[in-house]
Specification:
Blueprint lengths: L8 E18 L9 E8 L4 H21 L14 E3 L12 E7 L4 E3 L18 E13 L2 E15 L19 H81 L1
Parallel strand pairs: 5-7
Antiparallel strand pairs: 1-2, 1-6, 2-4, 3-4, 6-7
Length: 260
């Protein structure tokens, strides 16, 4: 028994990937909402493939509207519908394009051309490349409002394209180096080493001289103290020696007076 097709499920072919957050979820607004995996798919309405993609999305939108609001769908502004006109944005590459925004709280299946699973480290899929994708259109009607959304289900790399965002640096931006430049480059480490050696030699010498000065001052203090102590000792010795002599002279004068 063949699997019944889901009219809300859409397969997109050869669309350009933009704002790709396929491997890590992105938080929206003030960060309080649930982070989601999300991206935009650019569709060229001037090509046969692009027209087929748009027709499939529009049919799915009409289907979910009737399912959700059988008595008549509300009138929704473009900002509340997942399919939008690229001319109403200022993003690079969106001019004359239509695009569909899709997101999912669950990580989508991401595949290479041969259907092998891809991880972010592989660097195969990026904003600007062309992919095939599977999305599912669904109608929202709750406290957050009425909308037509697209759930991001799977993405497969198809072919390379010009990456959105800053271009990688061009090696030709650097000037070619000649022999003189190479000699300068060889001398630079030696000069740098000499400068470092000189700086290292200077610092210890300056520090040493200050330390030696401090040591000299310390050495001076004991010597000066010692000399003062020696002087004091000399004075004490002189006093001790003088006292007997003066007493003797005084006794001698008293004896002479008695004799007289």
């Amino acid at each position: 028994m063949a699997k019944k097709e889901d009219p809300a499920r859409v397969k997109l072919k050869n669309v350009r990937l933009s704002f790709a957050h396929l491997f890590r979820p992105q938080a929206f607004g003030d960060g309080e909402g649930e982070p989601k995996y999300n991206c935009n798919f650019l569709i060229d309405p001037s090509t046969k493939e692009g027209k087929a993609n748009l027709r499939a999305i529009e049919d799915a939108i009409e289907y979910v509207k009737k399912e959700k609001w059988p008595k008549g769908a509300p009138k929704l502004s473009e900002g509340k519908i997942c399919l939008r006109d690229g001319n109403n944005t200022e993003y690079d590459g969106y001019e004359d394009m239509m695009y569909v925004s899709a997101s999912n709280a669950r990580r989508p299946l991401v595949l290479d051309r041969d259907k092998t699973p891809l991880n972010e480290e592989d660097g195969v899929i990026y904003s600007g490349c062309y992919v095939d994708a599977i999305i599912r259109i669904w109608a929202q009607d709750n406290k957050y409002g009425k909308r037509i959304n697209a759930s991001l289900e799977a993405v497969r790399f198809r072919r390379d394209g010009e990456a959105f965002g800053a271009a990688p640096p061009d090696p030709d931006e650097f000037d070619d180096l000649d022999d003189e430049d190479e000699e300068d480059e060889e001398d630079r480490p030696r000069r740098k080493r000499r400068d470092e050696d000189e700086d290292e030699d200077d610092r210890p010498r300056h520090r040493k001289s200050r330390d030696e000065d401090d040591e000299d001052e310390d050495d001076d203090r004991p010597r000066r103290r010692k000399r003062r102590d020696e002087d004091d000792e000399d004075d004490e010795d002189e006093d001790d020696e003088d006292r007997p002599s003066r007493n003797s002279r005084a006794r001698k004068r008293r004896d002479d007076d008695d004799v007289v």
